[in-house]
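anyone else get weird line breaks when pasting these?? whatever heres mine. first is seq + tokens for prot A
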Amino acid sequence: MARRFIVESNDIKKESDNVCVICGTEAHHINVLRHKIGDNIIINKYICEILDIKKDFVKVKIKEDAKSFGEAKADLTLFIAYLKGEKMDFVIQKAVELGVKQIVPFFSKNVVVKLDKKDYPKKLQKFSKIVDEACKQCGRTDNVNIENILTFDEMIKQLKNYDTNIFAYEKSHNSLKEVLREKCDSKMKISCIIGPEGGFMEKEAEIITSLKNTEQVSISTRILRAETAAISTCTIILYEMEGWWKKSLFFFIWFKNIEYFCRIWYTKNILWTVYIWNRV
């Protein structure tokens, strides 16, 4: 499979309908990876052939659309409270690798990080870069969106646009697996809500739970770190929505049936052997 490079629109200069020049960071990456004239690479969503390669730019010819790869069946958005240090970067990276389609950071009462609004664009630019790198690493060809950082009230308004909101809450006794199998399917627009290191305030939890389309769930009998809860919940949701448990169940039943018939066949052969031996 050809390597994929994600190039910003302002780093692409069109020379004709199917020939363009790539500049900037990704042109440097193509050079570093020692690509040559005639090599096929993927630029965003297109398979391209390298026509010319220099230190500062790469000229390519668009050949065809690249086949989509790595896109999850479920439309899952992760609403994640802003975490401190590198935890936020880690969660974003892993969410992309798992198949989450949209990531929305937000601030709630117990968020430890204090961030000035003027620093939002810089942080979002950093997160976008992490998303692009994760997409390239895992081979995803679809776009993963990092939305603007929201306040708690803004997040509540957005949650009303989803078919089902999965609210991971340490005080819940509802099984995530049962909720997903009974009330969700892969055609739904689903969100996953994960709180900060200190958890949600009780009033905040009540506001989220009061939404008609929200299901409060527990993912463990233990209290998990925010980053662990985010990755675990997304993994379970995507696993269930993509139907892997149904496939596993099918193969389990199939194997059990084979095992049953083998036992019958083996028992019959033993009995037949004993019968012949006694006759002799």
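and prot B, same format (seq, then tokens)
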Amino acid sequence: MATNGLLLNEKNLLFLKQHEIFVSISIDGGRSFHDRNKKGRYQESIFDALLAKIALSLQMLQRDNLSALMTIAPELSHNLYSNFRFIVKLGFNKIHIDPVHGKKWNLSQKQYFVDNFVKIIKFVQNKIKASEYIYLIPLFSPIRRVFSGKTNRQEFCPFYADLEVYPMGEMAFSQFLLNSPVKKIRDLSVIADIKRDYLDKRYRKCYPSYGSDGCRNCLPEYYGNIKDPKMKGADLVRSRNKMVEIMIANISRSYYSNKACKNYLRKFVQQVNRLRLLKN
């Protein structure tokens, strides 16, 4: 379950714990960085309240049941590494890093993202040597390919990987578009509506088929119809996943010779299996 964390309390955290529900809390870094894009209804800072909720969540759920969701805006990409370190210090050991969709990235901003992500990879690898394990998840696709050599639906189908469902019943492939201040963009982003029993005709007969023309063109057509620049930044997601894949492959080569690497990968696989994203 992904949340901004503000409604978490002892009662619902206990419910989540009893039902073994994995929780991801959205936090982009330190106060000035989180407040830049994530404020309250009246544009007030929610940072102090969020930190209190994170502390309570870590206390009740423990780190194995919790992760952080980092959303990286183009203009803040040069601070990615420092914000990552801040989130680690809060107590998270599972962190998902996602470049913002729906904004244009210039070449310098993309390079900042890649350079900072390389620093993060090195930081994670150095921590393994000290038997301190930090996981860049839920980026499950890279580790699955390393261990099984297979690709599954979760890796490419937006209904599995990108679907956003909102309280009023709307469904879209982008939270940023669904929350756009422009009504036309919001309306075009909706691909289904539970309350209206509606599903866009483009998806009524589709079925995931890796490599097919329909699947390959699915997201480009979706964002192309909305005139959204996300696809211009899609190379960042590919670069991120590739770097994680290379990191996992390098660690796996030391599986039998290095106890810390072996424990790191075992723990990683346990998390993936637990969330049932690794299937035979």
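btw re prot B: Residues 138-143 have pLDDT under 50 and may be disordered. Strands lie at 2-3, 23-26, 66-72, 95-99, 164-165, 170-172, 190-193, 198-199.
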